[in-house]
Write a structure and sequence with these properties.
15% strand, elongated, alpha+beta, Alpha-Beta Plaits
Amino acid sequence: MEGVELPTGDDDPELGFALVDGAIALVIDVRVYRLTAVKKTAYRLADRCTAVIGALADPLVPVTLRFKPGTTEAGARETARLFFQELLDQELREQIADETSAVRTLILAHAFSKADLIKRDE
């Protein structure tokens, strides 16, 4: 877009992620992302960092990403970026699961209605 300068996050601490004492502090709005999605995201990134999920202060939940000693700031910032990318993915999965729940239940009920689950001796 001509004449419009988009923020990159490098010059604005509000948009960037700062590594302080081996951790990056995040705040997640649970009106946007479900707590279940936050937990699943934390699990998915467990190989890169430890996510410490704080107490819900409606509608916000603090999440601290703790990194192994020696993690570079660039690496930590990239992991924080990936956290939000994965968080969106997990939220969409939760939403799709909600929206398709009735259909999945119907399909399972139909599949098992034709199966004889009891072994009968004849």
